[in-house]
Design a protein that fits this description.
This protein is mainly α. It is built from four helices and no strands. It has one domain.
Length: about 110
């Protein structure tokens, strides 16, 4: 049940990511330029993300670090799967992301 609810929260986070990105492109970008708009949009999304996750943890009464790690790792995996599926659908080359992820985790090919 926790994984199902975690998936629901992940979906809400994904929707808010799109909302914030739309706000960044429509409002922040024309006013502040690419670099500053990206920074402000990132901070805004982190705040939104923190609030949603805080409320989720509070509502679910999760107290064990192990449970939180499982949920977090689940979110990471479904995010990666979502990105690759989306990129495959739109025909984007995801090789640069694979290189970034492997170098970021110290897994040189």
């Amino acid at each position: 049940m926790l994984i199902l609810k975690s998936f629901g929260i992940w979906f809400i986070l994904a929707v808010f990511a799109i909302v914030v990105a739309t706000f960044r492109n429509g409002v922040l970008l024309p006013s502040f330029g690419e670099h500053t708009a990206h920074q402000l949009g990132t901070v805004l999304y982190l705040i939104v993300q923190f609030i949603i996750i805080f409320l989720f943890i509070k509502k679910m009464k999760i107290k064990e670090v192990k449970t939180l790690l499982v949920v977090g790792i689940f979110w990471v995996f479904i995010t990666i799967i979502f990105e690759f599926v989306l990129w495959a659908i739109i025909g984007k080359n995801y090789l640069p992301t694979i290189i970034f992820l492997t170098e970021g985790f110290g897994l040189l090919l």
